[in-house]
Amino acid sequence: MAPAPGSALTLRLEVPSLKSLYIEMYFGDTLLSSGTAFLVANDQSSHCTLITNRHNVTGRHQETDECLDKKYCATPNNIKIYFHKHPLDLGEWHCVKLPLYNEDRSQRWIEHPRFGASTDVVALNLKWGNDVQKFPYYLKTDLDRAKLVVRPAEPISVIGFPFGLSSTGHFPIWATGFMAQELGIVTPDNPTFLIDCRTRQGQSGSPVIAYRANTFTYINDSGKVSTNMAPGVVKWEFLGIYSGRVNSESDLGRVWHVSAIEEVLTAAEAAISKPLGQRG
């Protein structure tokens, strides 16, 4: 049987499995932590940037500013990102090491243009070579924004690397939970929502999607809610970036909505032409 539309044909993987990237944060050559990142772009012809959580690159708790590394009490100054190599069917990865600070000690990451350090979302601009394959989430197309209707208690997936684990190689693990609130109450000034999912360390920075197979409910071209039964067809809606649990005793997790990522991407695009010291 032919792979369903939306599948990665060469490896018979679902496309979202190709989009989550394993990352490691280092101080010098000392590994401090691991996490997840992914690429975003508006469409196939526009600027592509790396997105992850701010606390991954700062090495500090987003709310308390406490150092997250308890072994060395160190914060990272470089990051390793594992990209897919060409050709994809080899199932190999190319590791890119990137400094987190410029020579003048200014940060290389780009923060939210309105909320700055209070938003747990950052971008890193890279110079792209031919030695990696890019699989971004496209924010302005229906490839990753299928206009799916996602209601409370419906399934969502957090696709990342809990405890640095992977399914094989550096392919991610899908953790599935449920929407814990109405998406309709997300606002531009409060672009977060809650999910109920058993997530763990290492999944910070993971993309959160609603993945549907065979049957899906969506907003049609007339702006009305419609349900489509299409055997063998998969659709997904990119919802945002997972940031962590609300506390250590809860399975409730916070997700920064895709609208916040859109603003960070815009800032990353604008930062390309700025002098190094002005890119934070």
CATH H-tier superfamily: Trypsin-like serine proteases
Characterize the main sheet.
7 strands, mixed
- Average pLDDT score: 91
**Could you name the ranges where pLDDT drops below 50 across 5 or more consecutive residues?**
1-7
CATH architecture: Beta Barrel
Count of separate structural domains: 1
Apparent shape:
globular
In CATH, the topology is named Thrombin, subunit H
Strand content: 35-45%
Please tally the helical runs, counting DSSP H or I stretches of 4 or more residues.
Answer: 3
Set down the secondary structure blueprint.
Blueprint: E1 7-8, E2 13-14, H1 16-19, E3 20-27, E4 30-41, E5 48-52, H2 54-58, E6 78-84, E7 93-99, E8 122-124, E9 137-138, E10 155-160, E11 173-179, E12 192-196, E13 207-219, E14 225-245, E15 252-257, H3 258-271
Parallel strand pairs: 4-9
Antiparallel strand pairs: 1-2, 3-4, 3-6, 4-5, 5-8, 6-7, 10-11, 10-13, 11-12, 12-15, 13-14, 14-15
What does this structure look like?
This protein has about 280 residues and is mainly beta. It has one domain (about 20-280): Trypsin-like serine proteases (Thrombin, subunit H), CATH 2.40.10. About 10% of the residues lie in helices and about 40% in strands. It has helices at about 15-20, 55-60, 260-270; strands at about 5-10, 15, 20-25, 30-40, 50, 80-85, 95-100, 120-125, 135-140, 155-160, 175-180, 190-195, 205-220, 225-245, 250-255. Strand 4 and strand 5 (about 50) form a beta hairpin. The longest helix is centred in the C-terminal third of the chain and has 14 residues, at about 260-270. It is globular and about 55 Å long.
